[in-house]
Specification:
The protein is of the alpha+beta class and 240 residues long. It has 6 helices and 10 strands.
């Protein structure tokens, strides 16, 4: 099956821009149905890398075609656990995923990947091979709150990723109060725009009125940097 590549644009924005833009977006796009009453859900991802920090270095070096693996959960719950591989080709992305149980997650932390060979999803077998040949291992936990808007035309997703925090990879992915380190100064966040084909003009026009600074920032890299150069006390923050 041909990979379904999508556009991905990222911007650094302030709380003030987020507040105004999210208010305007709410008039033309609904929140993702999985978001809570406040239109927000929590995301935690345990990212993997090898001994040479290949995924990290390829991102910083601007390698056009690259990939990285992560295990993702929502709202610190084990109801939905996914092993994902995010592929990047220039400004385009696509994602493969396969579901995991809590028991399978535990096996992966213990370095037992054999069960992945029994899963039908190609990403499971790819991870097994890469884990054995490149010795990939947990690198960092990335934690943030996401406010997502969706539009079926062009499969548009616009997300505000707030309170981005770094957590040590050996900590418990499901522990709400895991010690975390803030990545951005107060009042800053990442706006992401993902779409297939062309961004509808109605939505494109909304962004022309706002001072948006495009960025190639990677939450994965930023959190690794923050964790390894950590200063000050961690933030103990439970989910709202």
């Amino acid at each position: 099956m041909t990979a379904a590549y999508r556009h991905e644009l990222k911007y650094l924005i302030t709380d003030a821009v987020c507040h105004e833009l999210s208010r305007v977006l709410a008039g033309v796009m609904p929140h993702d149905s999985h978001a809570g009453p406040a239109g927000v859900y929590g995301i935690r991802s345990l990212y993997f890398d090898d001994l040479y920090r290949t995924a990290y270095r390829e991102k910083l070096d601007g390698v056009e075609i690259r990939k990285k693996y992560r295990i993702r959960i929502y709202n610190c719950s084990d109801r939905m656990i996914s092993l994902e591989c995010k592929h990047k080709n220039g400004a385009y992305i696509y994602k493969e995923s396969v579901s995991l149980t809590r028991e399978e997650y535990g096996k992966m932390l213990a370095g037992d990947y054999a069960f992945l060979l029994k899963k039908d999803a190609p990403v499971a077998r790819e991870f097994f091979v890469d884990a054995r040949t490149s010795l990939i291992r947990p690198a960092v936990i990335v934690d943030y709150d996401r406010e997502p808007f969706v539009n079926d035309i062009g499969s548009v997703r616009i997300t505000f990723d707030k309170n981005v925090r770094a957590i040590a990879p050996e900590d418990d992915l499901f522990r709400e109060t895991a010690p975390s380190y803030a990545v951005f100064p107060p009042g800053q966040m990442i706006l992401e725009v993902k779409f297939t084909g062309r961004l509808p003009e109605k939505i494109r026009g909304l962004f022309r009125s706002y001072p948006l600074t495009q960025t190639t920032a990677s939450k994965f890299c930023l959190c690794l940097d923050r964790l390894e150069g950590r200063t000050g006390a961690p933030v103990l923050k439970a989910r709202p």
